Amino acid sequence: MIQLSIPKMKCGGCAASVEKAIHALDAEAAVKADPSTRQVEISTSADRQSLLTALAAAGFEAEETRR
Description:
Low-confidence stretches: none
Number of strands: 4
Number of helices: 2
Mean pLDDT: 93
Radius of gyration: 10 Å
Helix content: 25-40%
Structural class: alpha+beta
Strand content: 15-25%
């Protein structure tokens, strides 16, 4: 499970765009994007750097979340 913080994800439309960017890398990824907390949890076979790059290309800079 990869957990990311996405400060610019502020609404449902943003969350849908984040999910779309992730699914473009891995159509089978399980994505839980929560705009109220600006957090996303991803179960994927894609590597972390590819996710960060795809999200940045979609306009959503992401940071790793530590728990």
